User: Fold this.
Amino acid sequence: MKKDKLVLLTLCLFIALPLQSCVVARPVAQPGPNFVWVAPRTFSGGAVVPGHWVYKGKPHKNKTWVPGHYGPRGRWIEGRWRTLKAPRKNAVWVPGHWSKKGRWVDGHWRTR
Assistant:
């Protein structure tokens, strides 16, 4: 009888632990109005993009929202507003984005 309880308890732990790691909580602090939470997702190749806030409001003059992301050394960088200054007259801002390999590509200027 005691052995049956131990087996049952062990079985419950093996079932419960993997399920617990799948829970993803959204951060409590919304950066401001007009922000939408994008849930974590996994690309077909297995790359994981963490959940992050995306700004969906009216554009701010000379500013862009950079979502939270992992830096090159694996450190988490909080989302923030970035001031933009065009280096040339015909330059176009390409916003930062997640690649299909799950890596963050910083926003950058592209010349037309």
Q: What stands out?
A: The CA atoms of residues 45 and 91 lie 33 Å apart. Residues 19-23 have pLDDT under 50 and may be disordered. The chain has one helix and twelve strands. The helical segments are 2-20.
